[in-house]
Specification:
heterodimer, A: alpha/beta, Aconitase, domain 3, Aconitase, Domain 2, 3 domains, five-stranded parallel sheet, 16 helices, 19 strands, B: alpha/beta, Aconitase, domain 4, seven-stranded mixed sheet, 8 helices, 7 strands, about 30% helix, globular
Chain lengths: ~475, ~190
């Protein structure tokens, strides 16, 4: 009998081309390489310099998301790029993909969207796959029971040329959410509570598996939100065992296996969850029932607390600097802080369920005076579904802006950003200094909380805006 | 592109004490629209060095002109967290740093740095605390011996992933290493 293995062990073992030794890391085969415009140009340039071609264009999918405008083209058909450099970068990826035979979801493609949104949506992201991308939020795809992690541009070049990466096997950690979530609490709240508990470097060096009743109860979209934030705890890999929820999400999607292949794939995928006696280098438990709607109050994602609480007094120099930047008064309720801008979007929270959650809060209400609210769907497919459901009308009737898909204000490199000093409540993943524009103070939150802040005009608990029936149905 | 070989570095330190210095601090996202890796030092720690209207900040720990002889950046824990942008080590190198020392350095940044000849050095908490107290101290980092010593007697050892160390010391090319296993990759693909 072989030793019990974890989900991570199984995926690692089946993808080793050359095992690791003391001298060299393992050579690991990659089943899906996702590419976007920002971290790929220098990698394609290396192929050029060395006279190499893309080994497996069939396992490579490119999209445009980071530098792309979220406003439509003008009357002459010109897109409002933030800079000429941004436009050049987009054209560079178009040229690189054309040259190397890589499928690119171009600007007019009805499937285009944020790289971590389109992979799952197209059915490319599947249990048992190894998935990489030059983007730290690649951990998102782990929600399907895939081994997915972010890489740098040099490694993007390695994968383009060889379909492999050099990797040392990381340590393993299981984070078990015990008990059920309270009504109105979502995956983003779980992620922020988990990061607050283990710290922004708590997962460093580990591949993390999320488990437990509250994780199993999550939709695929919620699971993606949780795995997306693994990197904010320092873990490159966050993963969840595939189950009926996973299979139901994937069945019938464009690039998912079809017919007999589907049945065979599901049979294989059922073998992937961690064996009952699998061991982990570290085990952590999180009390899911105790989690409340969360926000961040500092400049690192682990500075998170329940939205109904008070800002804690800083305990050291780093926290004091963060508190000065964020301007939350110590021991005063967060609710006293006035909000200038709200962003609902990003690879963390731009999926249909996120938009529905925000719309539930905004329906029939108005964004407070002085607050700008930006709603950016994660993909063209989500935009179309949301518009078919009338979500866009709920947002625009409330006074929010409904934009075209992209990373937008999460990374703020396409021109969508806050002004210096503004307090921005954002459903994205990073509250770093200046991340959403110079001097911008970012508060991370889930979609319902962000929407509630837009309506209230200050930091607000979403529960006051959600009907009991809607909560019970959620 | 092969980085310059790294064997032994003798320089001075530049200290920033903050924890969790993320790659958005090292190079803000608005500078990522570049399609080359050259010249990014001008944007390294940009918002720490310049005001909102692009004037040099007097109080910045980072000189406008570059790192000079302070080629070793000593920083608080969890340095390099956040985005996977390789522009971060490109910018630090171009600014003039050759090594980063902390008690703990984020995984992707560490991996990216090693591939470009910026040596990430993780030291024990005591050494780290001592280095944070000695801005500008003369320091020697020896990759052959994996030791760090200062002029005033701090001595510490560190570990570097053996393959990355060999790449830096001997100029081994990681992509060449993978390409040399082409037959195994082909066999793996055929079996899949």
């Amino acid at each position: 009998m072989s030793a019990p293995r974890s989900l991570f062990d199984k995926l690692w073992d089946t993808h080793v081309v050359v095992p690791e030794s003391e001298d060299a890391p393992a050579i690991l085969f990659i089943d899906l390489h996702l590419v976007h415009e920002v971290t790929s140009p220098q990698a394609f340039a290396v192929l050029e310099e060395r006279g190499l071609k893309v080994r497996r264009p069939d396992l490579t999918q490119a999209t445009l998301d980071h530098s792309t405008p979220t406003l439509p083209a003008d009357a002459d058909g010109r897109l409002p790029y933030a800079t000429e450099a941004a436009e050049r970068q987009v054209h560079q990826l178009e040229a690189n993909c054309a040259k190397h035979g890589i499928d690119l979801l171009g600007l007019d493609d009805a499937r285009r969207g944020i790289v971590h949104v389109i992979g799952p949506e197209m059915g490319l992201t599947q249990p048992g796959k190894t998935i990489v991308c030059g983007d730290s939020h690649t951990s998102t795809h782990g929600a399907f029971g895939a081994l997915a992690f972010g890489i740098g541009t040099t490694e993007v070049g390695h994968v383009l040329a060889t379909q492999c990466v050099l990797q040392r096997k990381p340590k393993s950690m299981r984070i078990t959410f015990e008990g059920a979530l309270s009504p109105g609490v979502g995956a983003k709240d779980m992620a922020l509570a988990m990061i607050a508990q283990i710290g922004a470097d708590g997962g460093q060096g580990y591949a993390v598996e999320f488990a437990g009743e509250a994780v199993e109860a999550l939709s695929m979209e919620g699971r993606m939100t949780l795995c997306n934030m693994a990197i904010e705890a320092g873990a490159r890999v966050g993963m969840i065992a595939p189950d009926e929820t996973t299979f139901a999400y994937l069945e019938g999607r464009e690039r998912a296996p079809q017919g007999e292949d589907w049945d065979a794939a599901v049979a294989r995928w059922r073998e992937l969850p961690s064996d009952p006696d699998a061991s982990f280098d570290k085990e952590v438990t999180v009390d899911a029932a105790a989690i409340r709607s969360m926000i961040t109050y500092g400049v690192s994602p682990d500075a998170a607390a329940p939205v109904t609480g008070n800002a804690p007094a800083p305990a050291n120099d780093s926290e004091r600097e963060a508190a000065e930047y964020m301007r939350f008064a110590a021991d005063r309720p967060f609710a006293e802080a006035k909000v200038d801008r709200v962003f609902i979007g990003s690879c963390t929270n731009s999926r249909l369920s996120d938009l529905r959650e925000a719309a539930e809060v905004m329906r029939g209400r108005t964004v407070a005076d002085g607050v700008t609210a930006l709603i950016v769907p994660g993909s063209e497919a989500i935009r179309q579904q949301a518009e078919a459901e009338g979500l866009d009308a709920i947002f625009t009737d409330a006074g929010a802006e409904w934009r075209l898909p992209g990373c937008s204000m999460c990374i703020a490199m396409n021109g969508d950003q806050g002004a210096p000093g503004e307090l921005v409540v954002s459903t994205s993943n990073r509250n770093f200094v200046g991340r959403q524009g110079k001097g911008v103070r970012t508060v991370l939150a889930g979609p319902a909380t962000a929407a509630a802040c837009a309506i209230a005009g200050h930091i607000a608990d979403p529960s006051q805006y959600i009907s009991t029936e809607a909560r019970d149905a959620a | 592109m092969q980085p310059d070989p790294f064997t032994r570095l003798e320089a001075r330190t530049l200290v920033v004490r903050q924890s969790n210095i993320d790659t958005d601090q090292i190079i803000p996202a608005r500078f990522l629209t570049t399609t080359t890796r050259e010249g990014l030092g001008a944007n390294a720690f940009y918002d720490w060095r310049y005001t909102g209207d692009d004037q040099p900040k007097n109080a910045s720990p980072f000189p406008v002109a570059g790192a000079g002889d302070r080629q070793v950046l000593v920083a608080g824990p969890n340095f390099g967290c956040g985005s996977s942008r390789e522009h971060a080590p490109w910018a630090l190198l171009d600014y003039g740093f050759r090594a980063v020392v902390s008690s703990d350095i984020a995984d992707i940044f560490k991996s990216n740095s090693l591939k470009n000849g910026l040596l990430p050095v993780e030291v024990d908490a005591e050494t780290h605390a001592a280095l944070l107290e000695r801005p500008g101290v003369a320091i020697a980092i020896d990759l052959e011996e994996c030791t760090l010593t200062t002029e005033d007697g701090i001595e510490a050892s560190f570990t570097v992933e053996p393959f990355a160390r060999r790449c830096l010391l001997d100029g081994v090319d990681p992509l060449g290493h993978i390409l040399a296993h082409d037959a195994q990759i082909t066999a793996y693909e055929a079996a899949a």
